Amino acid sequence: MDFTLDETQAELRELAASLFGREATPERLTDHEKGGRPYDAGLWEAAARAGLIGACLPEDVGGAGLGAVELAVILREAGAKVVPVPIQDSLVAAMVIGRYGSAGQRERLARLAEGEIVLTAALLEPGRDLGAPPLTTARPSGDGWVLSGRKTMVSYAAESDAILVAAQTEQGTGLFLVRPGDAAVQAVPASTGEPAAAVILDGTPGEPVGEPDGAAYRALRLLALVAITASASGVLAGALELTTEYIKARKQFGRALAEFQAVTVQIADVYIAGRALDVAVWSGAWRVDAGLGDEAELDLAVAAHTVTDAALAGLYTCQHLHGGIGLDVTYPLHRYFAWGKHRAHLLGGVEARLDTIGALV
Q1: How many CB atoms neighbour CB 240 within 10 A?
Q2: How many Å apart are CA 92 and CA 126, to the nearest integer?
Q3: Who contacts 292 (Cβ-Cβ below 8 Å, separation ≥6)?
Q4: Whole-number Å distance between alpha carbons of 296 and 201
Q5: Whole-angstrom Cα distance, residue 13 to residue 74?
Q6: Rounded to a whole number, what is the distance in angstroms from the first to the last CA of the chain?
Q7: Are 28 and 36 a contacting pair, CB within 8 Å?
Q8: d(CA 315, CA 333)
Q9: pLDDT in tens, the chain (361 residues)
Q10: Beta strand spans in 250-302 (E)
Q11: Separation CA 203–CA 146 (nearest Å)
Q12: Which residues have a Cβ under 8 Å from the Cβ of 98 and sit 6 or more positions away?
């Protein structure tokens, strides 16, 4: 399998790297964190103007119609600069709506492409793994549907125009759009500083997206895995770059840290973890686009395990090689560690990922 990006994907990566590198400077991130805003609205609008938000949306709503590989390309660059915008969950929800939604639901995506609204998806439930069928239920009521259940760690729930919710019906697992104002949205802390919430549904109206036959739900879950693991890959790459520059410049006993064999071995382990994660992410994303869902499941399960194990260990190594400055919140490394840790938590941790791989093989 050739993991070389094609011309369109390479140009998209250059565009994302250039925009995020120019806009998401450490100084701007610090100002954003001090400001207390849910996300950097200026950066979100800049991403929309550059076409990054619309890249994976359907062409008939102003998007470019690209797929999971391009989603991974964008989110890897966003992770490398830890950009404080709701691009991960917005794109995942929008791609599913673009594929399975009604004409009216798809039309709303044009506002997302313009950066006017935010979307999110609610997959996690208390005590449940990302791959477990939801306990949240949906039943017909009059001319519509009502949902009951509880979702947790829903990013940007209060800020979103709509939340894409997975729920069980008598026919199977379906997806429903819920307005934040119709549900009880309770803020919960996230290590990244991004807004997150528990969403409590109690007879809450929901608008069905596609048929409740499990197909849309599986697409959502696979794209969410692509998004989380690709973002984590970028986070590790950003931390590795920062650490590599640090050990080249930092001296002990008259020598750069990079000249010590113990240091080079440790930084090599971080590089290897990043390469292993990349291989699994690109393979999984490619198989999603190729319609090879079963094979994509296994690739993305491996990627998710790497995020919770070797990649997270790599972030610990980056902090260790920085010494005390690695723990200083005025130094950029803490953002990478927080983002990586958060994504490992979203994936359920090492044991959950091993159980998933065991079930698949």
Answers
A1: 21
A2: 21
A3: none
A4: 31
A5: 6
A6: 21
A7: no
A8: 9
A9: 667 899 999 999 999 999 999 999 999 999 999 998 999 999 999 999 999 999 999 999 989 999 999 999 999 999 999 999 999 999 999 999 999 999 999 999 999 999 999 999 999 999 898 888 999 999 999 999 999 999 999 999 999 999 999 999 999 999 999 999 999 999 998 989 999 999 999 999 999 999 999 999 999 999 999 999 999 999 999 999 999 999 998 888 888 888 899 999 999 999 999 999 999 999 999 999 999 999 999 999 999 999 999 999 999 999 999 998 888 888 999 999 999 999 999 999 999 999 999 999 8
A10: 251-252, 255-256
A11: 5
A12: 57, 58, 61, 63, 106, 109
Distance between CA atoms of 300 and 360, rounded to whole angstroms?
A: 11
CA distance 256 to 111: 51
- Tokens representing 147 are 């949902």
Residue type at position 330:
T
Strands in the chain per DSSP E: 119-122, 137-141, 144-155, 162-168, 173-178, 184-188, 196-209, 251-252, 255-256
Q: Decide: helix, strand or coil at residue 348.
A: coil
- 54's tokens: 């619309």
DSSP string, 4-62: ---HHHHHHHHHHHHHHHHHS-HHHHHHHHHHT-SS-HHHHHHHHHTTTTTTTS-GGGT
pTM for the model: 0.96
Question: Do 191 and 145 contact (CB within 8 A), yes or no?
Answer: no
**Domains within the chain, CATH numbers bracketed:** 7-117 (1.10.540.10), 120-212 (2.40.110.10), 216-360 (1.20.140.10)
